TrEMBL record:
Record PROSITE patterns: ELMO
Residue span, ELMO domain: 143-300
Protein name: ELMO domain-containing protein 2
Native species: Nicrophorus vespilloides (Boreal carrion beetle)
UniProt cross-references to PANTHER family, sorted A to Z: ENGULFMENT AND CELL MOTILITY (PTHR12771), LD01482P (PTHR12771:SF51)
The gene coding this protein: LOC108569098
Superkingdom, natural source: Eukaryota
Coiled-coil residue windows: none
């Protein structure tokens, strides 16, 4: 039965869809990309629809364009003036292939260009985040050590570290006396996520969450949970669930900062979820995390969702 439905879907996609698109073009005077950019809500609904349309195109020129944009974003070259020129070139290619007059459809040029920024900016963001994840924390690297010290200062501004290796690290949720061993799974990305949360939201959400982690009954290991949430955020970015957040948040090419902000939202909301579950010990972490992740994925299914930390709740 499943195979039959798959066959029907493939048949419709391959034969019926082009006829339907041709019919709409003849009756509306607009190609599918124009209809999307003029009719779909801005943000994730529009960008994802454009992404799907481009991916389904049978045009060799469009396929070549997609391969070029993939190469650019995978090699971190979708930035600055180079990025703007690439967007302009991509728009020009589509205008030519689809026979669209830019003087008449100037709004399409703007909307479609923004979609190009988001789609391949997201792909570049994934490459940037993966580069951080695969960078091993190195205690001999001065910059890595500086960031670790900044993390301590942001979370414990009134307390000095007795030494580089000390049990004090356990006060902010590391497993042992030396945090470097806890970064193995997520590399430098785990540290940068924690540091961003502690630095950007130190006077509100971060201190709020840290205080909850120290609860005598329902507490948890702040740093270890944070690194686990880095893994969750990375998985959501990699499998495409995070597109809803990124496409609804960014006005330009997404940067790693956007990923950090997404992580902060997850950490803050996980803390709320954890306390609502009232666990008796960290042994319940896996089940609670699984349920939380399912809830996040369900929320991300709504293309109109915009996530943000509710600062009023931290007062």
């Amino acid at each position: 039965m499943v195979e039959m439905y798959t066959y029907i879907w493939l048949f419709v996609s391959y034969y019926v869809r082009p006829i339907y698109k041709w019919f709409l073009r003849k009756t509306t005077g607009l190609c599918e990309l124009q209809r999307i950019c003029y009719g779909a809500v801005s943000g994730a609904p529009r960008v994802r629809a454009v992404e799907k349309s481009l991916g389904a195109s049978r045009s060799p020129q469009i396929a070549q364009l997609i391969a070029h944009l993939n190469n650019v974003s995978d090699n971190h070259r979708f930035v600055g003036q180079n990025g703007r020129e690439i967007v302009s070139g991509a728009v020009s290619t589509v205008l030519l292939v689809k026979r669209i007059n830019p003087r008449v459809h100037f709004q399409f040029v703007k909307s479609f260009g923004h979609c190009i920024q988001q789609i391949w900016g997201y792909r570049q963001l994934l490459a940037d985040v993966e580069s951080l994840r695969t960078t091993t924390y190195d205690p001999d690297n001065v910059e890595h050590e500086r960031k670790l010290m900044l993390l301590w200062e942001a979370l414990r501004p009134d307390e000095m570290l007795a030494s580089r290796i000390t049990k004090q690290w356990q006060d902010i949720g590391f497993q042992g006396d030396d945090p470097k061993t806890d970064f193995r799974g997520m590399g430098l990305l785990g540290l940068e996520n924690l540091l961003f949360f502690a630095s950007e939201y130190g006077n509100g959400p971060a201190s709020h969450v840290l205080s909850h982690s120290l609860h005598p009954v329902h507490g948890y290991a702040f740093a270890i949970v944070g690194i686990n949430l880095t893994s969750m955020a990375w998985q959501l970015l990699r499998d495409g669930h995070a597109k809803t957040y990124v496409y609804n948040t960014c006005k330009a090419v997404p940067s790693v900062r956007v990923f950090h902000q997404f992580y902060c939202y997850l950490f803050y909301e996980f803390d709320r979820h954890w306390l609502a579950c009232r666990p008796k010990s960290m042994m319940e972490f896996s089940d609670i995390k699984t349920k939380f992740e399912s809830n996040v994925k369900a929320s991300l299914q709504d293309p109109n969702n915009v996530f943000s930390i509710r600062l009023a709740d931290t007062v």
